[in-house]
Amino acid sequence: MNGHVAVLMGGWSKEREVSLVSGAAVATALKDTGFQVTEIDVHQDAAALLSQLYPIPDKVFNALHGRFGEDGCVQGFLNILGVPYTHSGVLASALAMDKPMSKRVFKEVGITVADHQILTREQLSQTVFGSKPHVIKPLNEGSSVGVNIIFEGDSYTPTEKEWPFGSHVMAEQYISGRELTVAVMGERALGVTEIKTGHLFYDYDAKYSDGGSIHQVPAQLPQDIYDEAMRISVLAHKTLGCRGISRADMRYDGKDLYLLEVNTQPGMTPTSLVPEQASYANISFENLVVWLVEHAECDG
User: Fold this and answer.
1) What does pTM read for this prediction?
2) Catalytic site residue from 208, 226, 252, 258
3) Which CATH class is domain 95-112+176-290?
């Protein structure tokens, strides 16, 4: 037996269902490689989670996605318990999840990002960047939850019910071009994938529905662009202070690479990009999961 690992999954974010699939895949892989596994469906009840984590496991595999599981909250909880957990710690998780703050950090190290403004919902009816199209996003959600592209002639002022992501919105310059993503494992970029989809963009359904997208790995790019995408992704991972695995999403407009965001808790579902890139790098899903557990840490 390789030790006791608790797998946290589910949660109460918009990405709950995806997290349940990720967690189930991870739990199966850990059992198959000789670990004792406790699967924990996390709900908004700290006392219940605390009781489910006793006796304290050797490690925690954090398979939660979205707010509260990916933004530093559960990481702080696990730090208090002193149990090592997979993926990034509090600061890197919080920075990566907060899109305006992470973009500010990326610009400081010379990474190109799309221009943006932070507006109230009501201000969306005003001119943004002087022209359209532009993209609106929640400030701190993942998996393209809440993302919309606003084209010339469109008018979109979401009601409070339509926009359950707070009073403010990120309006971002729309970058046309090719959708690329790079997984970083430790401080090593695994490869560059180009994502092709019949959807308007790589939205939630394209990410998680069968046939929603085609992943081409390695992406067919000029070698200098391929290498630069790898370099940017490792730099972003290090700059945020990420641990374990992260995934950088970017756009290539034929001239420049624009970093869109870094995901510190990439999906581990059957259609997920990181396991696919790991396979391209000759790393099996089981070995990927075990590596994450072996590199689990607490902050401090």
Assistant:
1) 0.87
2) 208
3) alpha beta
